[in-house]
Automatic annotation (TrEMBL), chain A:
GO terms for biological process: aerobic respiration. Belongs to the heme-copper respiratory oxidase family. Its main location: membrane. Keywords: Electron transport, Heme, Iron, Membrane, Metal-binding, Respiratory chain, Transmembrane, Transmembrane helix, Transport. InterPro entries: Ba3-like_Oxidase_I, Cyt_c_oxase-like_su1_dom, Cyt_c_oxase-like_su1_sf, Cyt_C_Oxase_1, Cyt_c_Oxase_su1_BS. It comes from the Archaea. One of its GO terms (cellular component) is membrane. This is B(O/a)3-type cytochrome-c oxidase subunit 1. It is a multi-pass membrane protein.
UniProtKB/TrEMBL annotation, chain B:
GO terms for molecular function: copper ion binding; cytochrome-c oxidase activity. Keywords: Copper, Metal-binding. Its main location: other. The keyword Metal-binding applies. GO terms for cellular component: membrane. It comes from the Archaea. It comes from Halorubrum salinarum. This is Cupredoxin domain-containing protein. The keyword Metal-binding applies. It is found in: Cell envelope. CDD domains: ba3_CcO_II_C (cd13913).
Length: 596, 171
């Protein structure tokens, strides 16, 4: 939007009700962050055998809660808050009906509370409820029904949030029939379209299989099928976390650096590529699964590697935009401009360090994606080492750093201490560098992820540079620094909330150097892109899912016993589906052979 | 749409990198003939492993000249047999299944690594060289005792292996 429209009023001045919603969503996100950080430090000290304050059997309760609160709650609440801000700001119009907005917020909060209670009840022996199934909830490990029900409610809430954004955009479109979709809104809409596609599979898995199974309505489920449906969602969800960070890198970071976004059209291309490519890749989490043909795995790898493209393009655009900012500020030389950047601003330094870590995470991600090298590191602590760089730093550190810029815009309150902010983002970077470096190294030694006591009694890991114990110390120190950083962040924010309201904090965003008019109109054709995305999903998943159901049956290999009143229905459904799938499978057998 | 010259170079280099990665994996698999865990084995009834020919008595069996088959069952919280004893300088094919939930089968520090899913049989073939003792662990969370689920793969000399199997469960 143009500067003239924005004037020097902040978002909070122009849209007070929306600003309240954004603040509520961000605060929910940060509550999850604090809980996750407390669980994180318990975990890191336990795993490394520095301090074991809980029995090892409870470690998995901690791990489940850490995963769900940080990966689902922290990220998604921040995202819906940020997206509400981005849509309203870039369309420069209020939401259609904030009652609907508060409804989805309430649904998400209630859903997450249900899931959280089901998990945390695992600590209390007298409550007959637990959900120690980790973030991935692989059947046939079973959680209390409230765990699954809470997840379903949460996802429905996020769907209504997406509808809210789409409806607001449609209303704007009626008012501005000939204008291009503003960039931030475009990013929000493509991300939410991707989310609808991706989350449909996990919703189906939960509602059709896992929830009825946990309620005792069906006896068993097909573990490969539910696992595949989980990963159908489980990989795109990492882009769901990442795309708000990208939105900030594209639209806010260049401004903070003193310049403007390099290219609006290319930013659109990147988001379209994410919409198209992020879903048909989930099988790359299942390279080592029996029951899935090698050819399907290979197709998934091909898609995955092409998914590198939008991230590599982003690396170019973000660095180019920041360089442009530095040169606007008087920077010169091949690398000399780097010294002309605002390194004392926590929002700038935080986002730049996050981007640097994302590059490192990208490289370990390429290793994960290679279906042959994957054998070396699959399910080792290398993998958490990788995603603590991507979601744990690229995303989380960007969110925290951006908050130092965003919070004054949505509350009219200046940040309590920008110095503490700067220390906080640097401590996070150092902590994560230590922790994830050591995790990667231990992973190559074969140390598994997701275990309370990785030291084992019967054998020792082959020693390599550094050794197991030394790496453990690195992990413990790194984890402790991350905890300290989180406390600094939250403390700073709480003190900020206590600051008096002032005016004059507005910091409007400039338009891109190469504006939307330079991009082909077809980029804004969301129907087309969603159509292609769905086609790619069908191409990537129809055959593997058909093969899995044909092999093991809808409800798993082996014969189950169902409650009598349900049996005919379930049997008929299973038979019909198996027959249908069989026909599809047979018809496409030739294609499968080619693929193999 | 205007694309900057540097941007074009970057784009081309990115695509080349991706093609190189794809090519290297394809060569790594097709060239030396490395097989991935796949859907070669039919499903089995996880609830009736004690009636299964291969898994009712988990064991290592000679199946050819220097070729052995190891039938392994993973269940909360251990592997059978334990230790898994195989002779040096041979080719061993592991057939691994689960009696209950999803487990992992990882020979620590090597690339012998697979998921173990109930109802499915994972097949992985490895070449074992010198005698050595390897740690075997479950790398997928499988319940409250997951961290004690460990075992060993002992690669022993041919003569030691034959001595062991003289009892009759060899061939």
């Amino acid at each position: 939007m143009s500067q003239a429209l924005e004037g020097d009023r902040t978002f909070a001045d122009k849209f007070p009700e929306e600003a309240r919603i954004v603040r509520a969503a961000l605060l929910s996100s940060f509550l999850a962050l604090v809980i996750g950080a407390i669980l994180g430090i318990i975990q890191t000290l336990h795993r490394t055998d520095v301090a074991r304050i809980i029995p090892s059997t409870d470690y998995y309760t901690v791990l489940t809660a850490h995963g769900v609160f940080l990966a689902i709650s922290f990220t998604t609440f921040f995202l819906v808050g940020l997206f509400t801000w981005a849509v309203v700001r870039s369309l420069d119009r209020p939401l259609l009906n904030t009652k609907i907005t508060w409804t989805w917020y309430a649904l998400m909060a209630v859903g997450m509370t249900m899931t959280g209670v089901a998990i945390l009840a695992g600590f209390v022996d007298s409550i007959d409820m637990s959900a120690d199934v980790l973030f991935t909830f692989y059947a046939p490990l079973q959680a209390h029904p409230m765990f699954y029900a809470g997840l379903a409610v949460f996802i429905v809430g996020s769907w209504i949030a997406g509808a809210d954004f789409f409806r607001t955009w449609l209303a704007w479109k009626r008012e501005h029939p000939d204008e291009r979709i503003p960039l931030q809104t475009f990013m929000v809409l493509t991300t939410m379209a991707m989310w609808y596609i991706a989350s449909s599979a996990v919703a189906a898995s939960v509602l059709i299989f896992l929830l009825p199974w946990s309620l005792g309505l069906i006896d068993q489920v097909n573990p490969t099928l539910t696992r595949t449906l989980f990963w159908f969602f489980g990989h795109p969800v990492v882009y769901f976390w990442l795309m708000p960070a990208y939105l900030l890198w594209y639209t806010v970071l260049p401004k903070i650096a003193g310049g403007r976004l390099f290219s609006d059209p290319l930013a659109r291309v990147v988001f379209v590529l994410f919409l198209l490519l992020s879903t048909p890749v989930g099988i790359h989490h299942q390279y080592l699964d029996p029951g899935i043909a090698e050819g399907f795995k290979f197709i998934s790898m091909t898609n995955t590697l092409f998914l590198l493209l939008p991230s590599l393009l982003t690396a170019f655009t973000v660095v180019a935009s920041v360089e442009y900012g530095a040169r606007q500020r008087g920077g010169s030389g091949i690398l000399g401009w780097l010294t002309d950047l605002p390194w004392r601003k926590p929002e700038f330094t935080g986002m730049m360090l996050a981007g640097l870590m994302f590059a490192a995470g990208g490289f370990s991600g390429m290793v994960n994606a290679g279906m042959n090298i994957n054998y070396m590191i699959h399910n080792t602590i290398w993998v958490p080492g990788h995603f603590h760089l991507t979601v744990g730093t690229a995303v989380a550190l960007t969110f925290m750093a951006a908050t130092y810029w965003l919070w004054p815009q949505i509350s009219n309150k200046p940040i309590y201490s920008r110095t503490i902010g700067l220390v906080q983002v640097v401590v996070w970077f150092i902590g994560m560098a230590l922790m994830s470096n050591a995790m990667h190294a231990q992973g190559i030694m074969g140390v598994p992820r997701r275990t309370a006591e990785p030291e084992y009694s019967g054998f020792e890991y082959a020693t390599m540079f550094g050794g197991f114990e030394e790496l453990n110390i690195q992990i413990a120190i790194g984890g402790t620094l991350l905890f300290v950083s989180t406390i600094l962040f939250i403390g700073n924010l709480l003190l900020t909330m206590g600051n008096p309201t002032v005016s004059g904090l507005a910091d409007p965003l400039p338009p891109a150097l190469s504006g939307p008019a330079d991009s082909p109109k077809v980029l804004d054709n969301l129907r087309l892109w969603v159509g292609i995305a769905l086609t790619l999903v069908v191409l990537a998943y129809a055959l593997p899912l058909a093969a899995i159901i044909q092999r093991g049956g809808l409800l798993g290999p082996g014969v189950g016993t169902y409650p009598v009143w349900l049996a005919p229905l379930v049997d008929a459904l299973a038979n019909a589906t198996t027959a249908l799938v069989g026909a599809v499978g047979d018809a496409s057998a030739a294609l499968v052979e080619v693929v193999r | 749409m205007h694309i900057h010259a540097y941007e074009k170079i970057w784009l081309a280099a990115s695509v080349l990198l991706i093609l190189f990665l794809l090519g290297s994996v394809t060569y790594g698999a097709v060239g030396p003939g490395v097989a991935m865990v796949s859907d070669t084995e039919p499903t089995i009834d996880a609830g009736a492993l004690d009636e299964d020919e291969r898994f009712s008595e988990p064991r290592v069996e000679r199946v050819g000249e220097n070729e052995y088959a190891a039938y392994v069952v993973a269940r909360q919280f251990g592997f059978q047999p334990d230790p898994i004893v195989v002779p040096a300088n041979s080719t061993v094919t592991f057939y691994i299944t689960s009696a209950d939930v999803i487990h992992g089968f990882e020979v620590a520090g090597t690339n012998a690594n697979t998921m173990v899913v109930p109802g499915e049989v994972s097949e992985i073939t490895v070449r074992v060289e010198e005698p050595q003792e390897y740690g075997l662990l479950c790398n997928e969370y499988c319940g409250a005792g997951h961290h004690v689920m460990e075992g060993k793969v002992n690669v022993v000399s041919q003569s030691a292996f034959e001595e062991r199997t003289d009892g009759g469960d060899g061939e």
